[in-house]
Amino acid sequence: MNQAANLENVLEQLRLEYIESSGDKLDQIDSLISDLLDFDDTKWREIFIEFQRQIHTIKGTAGSYGFQIVTEIAHSLEDYLETSNILGANQLGDIQLYVDNMRWIFEAGKNPAEDIAIEILRKLPTPNKSVFSNQEIRHIPVVLVMPYNIQRKIIANELTSCGFRVFIADTSVRAIELALIHKPTIVFSNYDVSDINGVELALVFRSIAATKAVNIAILSSQKTTNQQFAALPEDVKVIRKGENFSEDLAECLLDWQVFIKEARRSQTKNDRSHLRISFEGQVPIKKNDKEFLGKTVDISAGGLALKINKLVAADKNPFERGDRVTLDVKELSCLSGSIIRIKKDDIIIRFELDQSLEDRLLAEIMLVTNDT
Q1: DSSP 282
Q2: Nearest of 181, 165, 166, 222 to residue 199 by alpha carbon
Q3: Does a structural domain hold residue 372?
Q4: Which DSSP category does 320 fall into?
Q5: Phi, psi of 195, deg, nearest 5
Q6: Which of 37, 248, 288, 303 can pair with 239 through a Cys bridge, CB separation 3.0 to 4.6 Å?
Q7: Domain limits at 331?
Q8: What is the rounded CA–CA span in Å between residue 143 and residue 245?
Q9: Could you report the per-residue pLDDT of 16-73, keeping only the tens digit for each?
Q10: Separation CA 101–CA 65 (nearest Å)
Q11: What is the dihedral of CA 115, 168, 234, 250, to 10 degrees?
Q12: pTM of the full predicted structure?
């Protein structure tokens, strides 16, 4: 009995020493973040490599001392670093929030309750703010399962630019762990993974109650008719890597209606504006076969209204209330609507759509990137 008590005391002493040393390590990391703001070129790279090494060390040791949430925060920080286009002052400010959360948990001396831990992970910053103007796309977690290489960074970056929070797994086993922790909306898996392949992973996900409904896509350069996909569940998509990736990804997102479902889920009962999506870009609207370009588009669902201001190539506002106009955005089919309000340079157009067409229009507009 005394031996057990002594062992417990030793383990507790080791845990307290680890907490103290981790605080010192986080102090070093804080200094490294400050240095990253002050240096560039070769010196910056040396500091950044040391910063990554310190984060990796914390990630590898925290779980052994009962701080699993710190391990997950460190994992998420590594994902943030991999999916960032740039590491400037704004991004370093985000990184500081990751470090502050780790420090808060160490200072508390124990893992937070599960609901608090989930909320901490959910609120961690994401890189590369969405291209869809100032409109916030809500937290949509996805898991990307790929071995580390430049292709993974490119794909992770593209998913991030769509408004997703990307959690990266090197192995299928880690992917399952991430899925159980973060409950992703989508799992994107490379066909070739070190432990089990993407098709086998999809079958595993479909056999687990907690993940059986998750959207899954396999990333492959092979044709879908290839024998390797023979066992693929019917509801699992295949996305071609390479030049077809963006097209296949967009088609999958539209079929799954990911953005629309997330937006509807995030609405409150008192939210009278319904769905609202904005992006900066030029959008043609036509009247009597004459085309005008409008800048800044604001789509609101609840009928579907379109607001356009800053008309291009027009001496004065050429539209009047009641005018019939058409909208053509990228690859959208032309849609007709009536102008219901004109205020200064703003035009509000109302479209009469059924729910499914409205959802598809909104989803496609959310996929439009800023080309101007």
Answers
A1: E
A2: 222
A3: no
A4: -
A5: -95, -65
A6: 248
A7: 269-367
A8: 17
A9: 999 999 999 999 999 999 888 887 778 888 999 999 999 999 999 998 888 999 999 9
A10: 17
A11: 100
A12: 0.66
